[in-house]
Amino acid sequence: MTTAEAVVDGLLRHGIDTLYALPGVHNDHLFDAAHRAGERFRVIHPRHEQTAAYMALGAALVTGRPQACAMVPGPGLLNAAAALLTAYGMGAPVLALVGQIPSFAIDQGHGHLHELRDQLGLLRHFTRHAARIRAAQEAPALIDAALRIATTPPQGPVALECAIDTWGPAGGTVDAATASAAIPPRYSIDPELIARAAKLLGAAQRPIIVLGGGALDAGPEVQAIAEQLDAPVISFRRGRGIIPTSHRLAFSFTEGHRLWQEADAVLAIGTRLYWQESNWGIDDALPVVRIDADPTAFDRFRRPACALLGDAAPILRDLLAELPALIQAGPNRDAEFAATRAWFDERLERLQPQRAYLAAIRAALPDDGIFVEDVTQLGFVSRLAWPVAAPRLYLSPGYQDNLGWAYGTALGAQAALPGRKVVAVMGDGGFMYQAAELATAMRHNLPVVGVVFDNAAYGNVRLIQQQHYGNRLIACDLHNPDFVAFAESFGAAGLRATSPAALETALRQAFALNRPALIQVPCGPMPSPWDMILLPRQRGFADAWRPALP
């Protein structure tokens, strides 16, 4: 096999049968190898490299399995970089196959097509691992190593670079390989640390649990330990749905802030704990037990009282075995929880029409449907109020919070799970980042339903300028197409809804069509949710810095 053939073979050996990629001369041999793999392997080609990487990201997020994308060097890689950076922030196992100029000219500054100085070094800034394939003989082992790193907690994107002359016969040949199985890391869980954690948590009267993306595969264990401790479970963005948001112990981010003040122990599972430790505050009366697969997590902000390194599920199972004998009877918290929910519901009701529109989407989307939110007013409120029954059904961009990510990510989710209903909720500003990908949805029969809330502005930017800069508006107003006609020009269904009830009807109609659709929702300014997200310090020292947001 040539290098290109060995790479395609390596992807197939690891269960990856789809490549999200744009063609280009630097990767011609790779595309030819994909073609010759026949029906075993498909290539989905969008209209922009950013979407190729976002599609791989979306597929990885909804399946939890590694996905692959490819792009040409230089501008192609830079176009895809925001999506790879987002994958890094979210711990998503995405493999990027990146072309390169001729091997003899790398980093020589000759001015070759798409030349980028130290491209491999650049890749290492936003991937967990990046390497160069120098010959066909190296390809099988490099594929195995890259995918092992991508799928070993803490997971994340990886990259393999290959020069234009190395992909083909000039790169030599290699015999067919056998898949090198990904070996799960063998974390040695110290029983003394488990005992210490169990003692801290068992003695607490008002413990609280905070979840992040590192707990996505530990839902049953999280729910069991929460029920043992009678502890509220707080999630925001990536952690939503790890236990159903309908569960008695599931609380929103804003409710968690209210409960934080009286908490006397924290169990943080697979989360950076950024908001809590940097904004809400930590003090000596609030010991923290952290479970994380990333050894660097424990030195951020404040060293925890107990640090447990490894996968969440097995550590939680060990804790579950220790806890029953150590739990001290605490107060009945039903009244406290009910009061917190009533307080939150009253505040949430002020966020209209966002709440009504979210209720309409929830009514139309099946329970196992996938909701992808962009950086928009509806998206911000959804982080607090969107009901989620299970993990990987709610996709949010994590701490990168990058505008315009949603549509391509939704297309990747749909490609990976073709039987599911997928909805992407966007503003007009964010949708236009990837609006041309309606062509990709049509070309590859990906029936994503996009909902565009159209206020002809970068709405959040405009709100900030109004409230904090004396209404001096600059670079925030937009000129938009007729979104219904725009969708129809691609052959997609175009609909318009002017109320929550009309949106629910339009969504049901779009889902029934089972083809790409776009629903325009004309809207005006919406009330800001930021006072429910950027919350004041509850304990500990005063803030060193806080952004001025509405």
Structure report:
With 550 residues, the protein is an alpha/beta fold. It folds into 3 domains: 3-171, Thiamin diphosphate (ThDP)-binding fold, Pyr/PP domains (Rossmann fold), CATH 3.40.50.970; 191-340, Rossmann fold (3-Layer(aba) Sandwich), CATH 3.40.50; 349-531, 3-Layer(aba) Sandwich (Rossmann fold), CATH 3.40.50. The chain contains 21 helices and 18 strands. It has helices at residues 3-13, 28-36, 49-63, 75-90, 119-123, 139-151, 164-167, 191-203, 219-229, 253-260, 274-280, 312-322, 334-348, 354-364, 377-385, 406-416, 428-431, 438-443, 459-468, 483-489, 500-513, and strands at 18-21, 42-44, 67-71, 94-100, 129-133, 158-163, 207-211, 233-234, 250-251, 265-269, 288-292, 306-309, 370-373, 394-395, 422-427, 449-454, 493-496, 517-522. α9 (219-229) runs parallel beside α12. The longest helix is centred in the N-terminal third of the chain and has 16 residues, at 75-90. The radius of gyration is 24 Å and the shape is globular. Mean pLDDT is 95; it is low at 542-550.
